[in-house]
């Protein structure tokens, strides 16, 4: 085995992986030698080009499969169409901010479906194949909000807490079978979506870029530094490695100390 490509011969399915954290994870897994299946709810030429580019860059098989993570049958079909799923990364997620008593019901339903139920469906579809091989890795991208709470994010926090619980149950059901299930709990990660919020926050608070990042956006992150998609990707690769073969049913916080408070 090439020590620089320890996941050679494995296939990884990463949901919500055409940008941000999901794309960072897919690239890290490809860099470790895994074939990767990218996913989103669109089906544009650029989606397939992205996968092709990753395949060429890292010398792995990389494909794109469209699936709407709010629909259980499409979640399961994604795994079936992947042509194998040794590594499952449940990353897809959406957010909405509102008080509980005025939280739109349809937004609640969508957030729970995409952030939590999708992971149930993909995991249920992937486990039989993992058991047949005697090896598998389930990595759920939860959040610091899977371990703590903030106001006005009821659906997101409920879903992420639920995802942590689902992770623990999957770990118990697969213990001793060569399969692990763990959750990564990022704090604020510098993604294109977050980057796009910075100018608006600067204008709203009358602050320069560094001040608004440090004093407003990262107020709850003691390091006052964003995590990076590369760091989340590296943590995922570790959880898929032999070194982590006995790490299961737990959470790893990549949050600059947020949940230590």
Give a structural overview.
The chain has 2 domains: about 10-190 and about 225-255, Rossmann fold (3-Layer(aba) Sandwich); about 190-225. Helix content is about 45%, strand content about 15%. The protein contains 8 helices and 7 strands, in the order βαβαβαβαβαβαααβ. It has helices at about 20-30, 45-60, 70-80, 105-135, 155-175, 190-205, 210-215, 230-240; strands at about 10-15, 35-40, 60-65, 85-90, 135-140, 180-185, 250-255. A 7-stranded parallel β-sheet has the order 3-2-1-4-5-6-7, with helices on both faces. The N and C termini lie far apart (about 40 Å). Keywords: Oxidoreductase. InterPro entries: 3-OHbutyrate_DH, NAD(P)-bd_dom_sf, SDR, SDR_fam. Its EC number is 1.1.1.30.
